[in-house]
Amino acid sequence: MRKILTAQDGHVLTDGTVYGKTLYLAEGADPSAFYEITGEEYAAAMESGPAEDADYIAALERFGVR
Amino acid sequence: MKKLYEEENIAAIAEAIREKTGSRERYTPAEMAGGMDAVFAAGEKSQYDEFWDAFQNAGSRTDYENGFMGDCWDETTFKPKYDLKPVSARSMFSKFGKIGSGVSLAELLNRAGVSLDTSNVTMGRTMFSAFHGAALPPLVFNKAADLNSLFYDCLWLDNLDITLNLDKSANIAGMFGTCRALTNLTVHGTIAGTGVSLQWSTGLTKASFISVIRALSEETSGLSITFSKTAKEAAFTAEEWSALIDEKPNWTISLV
User: Fold this and answer.
1) Looking at residue A31, what DSSP letter applies?
2) What is the side-by-side strand order in the sheet with A35-38?
3) Does A22 reach chain B within 8 Å, measured CB to CB?
4) What is the DSSP string of B203-236?
5) Torsion angle, alpha carbons of B81, B87, B88, B92, to 10
6) DSSP-derived 3-state class of residue B146
7) What distances in angstroms separate CA B142 from CA B48, B104, B176, B195, B232, one per listed residue?
8) Which of A24, A25, A53 sits opposite B126 (nearest CB)?
9) A49: pLDDT confidence band, cut at 50, 70 and 90?
């Protein structure tokens, strides 16, 4: 049976890779690997994406569409 | 009154029209004005052929990295002559189309009489990132090693049909990043990589959830996928949700 973890209000659970307010853990997953972070810390973690991709940014600038 | 032309002048005009249009039609003087339209059209076609033969390498181009990046590409300029068969497709349609235009890439391809075959794409990172349109044709990926941020920032994309037949080492993280408008998602094949998040798709339909979860690989472990809690609660009862995710006990399902 799955273990279900739920974060406190305003917090998010993470193991450094996956993030969630409610986590339905895979069978055999270790719940102790997860810890709570604040909403602000979560927002900061979510800012990554193509914005961090130097080649993507360079291409946008080269084509004048950044 | 002195005649302003000779017979040979008229014949020369007709021959000039035939030369520009490539036809062998006979033209009477009364028909020559209409022949000018044919000359203009022939010029347009010639310019079209010259551009697209060069741009698509007479149909053999496979490296389309940044190929149609930018909002200069829209319904007036995107008229490929040859089918698009990219292998290298990084940022190929990134920022394509005018913001808010609702352009459908499928419709543009259909108008041009060409197709987009993504089945041989190996590098598809940010291929459609920040695509400004609302619709894409069904997409098949069989060979991609990198589809990171494939649809990142497709803020107007509401429907998507995608087939994934990838090695489990393929990078598919961030594929649907900030796809806020995405409501209908059909996934064929198998999702076997981690880092896929549909947390921004708060209107994702029940059928979409089912399609995605049933596509999750049964042969992997330690992987996770994230959904919008709002979308999940609108779509499922607790019992329905429990039954669905229990089909894939090897996956951690996250709700944000």
Assistant:
1) G
2) A19-20, A11-14, A35-38
3) yes
4) T--HHHHHHHHHHB-SS--SEEEEE-HHHHHHH-
5) 40
6) strand
7) 32, 23, 18, 19, 29
8) A53
9) low
Please report residues of B whose CB lies closer than 8 A to that of A12. 256
Q: Is A58 on the interface with B (CB under 8 A)?
A: no
Do B128 and B118 meet the contact criterion of CB atoms below 8 Å apart?
Answer: no
Residue B78 DSSP one-character state? -
pLDDT tens-place string over residues B132-159: 999 999 999 999 999 999 999 999 999 9
> Cβ of B71 under 8 Å from any chain A Cβ?
yes
Span B83-120, pLDDT tens digits:
999 999 999 999 999 888 889 999 999 999 999 999 99
Residue B15 and residue B32: Cα distance in Å, rounded? 11
Sign of CA dihedral B47, B51, B52, B54: positive
Does residue A55 or residue B229 have the better pLDDT? B229
Q: In the numeric block, which tokens belong to residue A28?
A: 């055999």
For B207, the token pair is 């059928």
Question: Would the ipTM clear 0.85, i.e. be above it?
Answer: yes
